[in-house]
Design brief:
globular; 36% strand; nine-stranded mixed sheet
């Protein structure tokens, strides 16, 4: 793997910004299009998640509705690709707001590592592995806003 300063890094930056928008909008269906069907991941709710359906149902749906203002700090993105341009990696921190059981908010920072695949260099990147973790010392669970109106 080689680190590349432009080109694929810009594509991956756009990928993360798109994903963050889906998280904020709680748009699970659109987010699925960014991931490979056979994705394997780690997250705050599941030790290991295998398959896109499990990632959505067991991880995303347990977290996204309970947080706000999610965004990746894409100015800190580190990324690279394989020599053939079909495999990529990226590491990027993120921030969000979580809520304690009493409804009070807390800063909820973390970091993400994502591996990407594509069959041809002109196809979009699809995440085949994601590892999302909270920064050390951050409460592991967000309960959502207590004053939020149910959807």
């Amino acid at each position: 793997m080689i680190e590349q300063p432009e080109g694929p890094r810009d594509e991956l930056r756009d990928w993360f910004e798109t994903w963050a928008g889906f998280v904020r909008e709680r748009d699970f269906e659109s987010a699925r299009g960014l991931f490979h069907q056979d994705v394997v991941g780690f997250g705050t709710h599941m030790l290991v998640v295998e398959g896109l359906d499990h990632l959505e149902n067991d991880q995303w749906r347990n977290v996204w509705p309970t947080i706000e203002q999610f965004h990746f700090l894409t100015d800190q993105l580190r990324a690279g690709t394989s020599h053939d341009g079909l495999l990529a990696w990226a590491v990027v921190p993120w921030e969000s707001i979580g809520f304690l059981e009493d409804g009070s908010s807390f800063e909820r920072p973390g970091r993400a590592t994502v591996l990407f695949l594509r069959d041809h260099w002109d196809e979009p990147w699809r995440a085949i592995h994601s590892h999302i973790s909270l920064a050390p010392g951050t409460p592991q669970r967000s309960f959502g806003r207590t004053d939020a109106v149910p959807n």
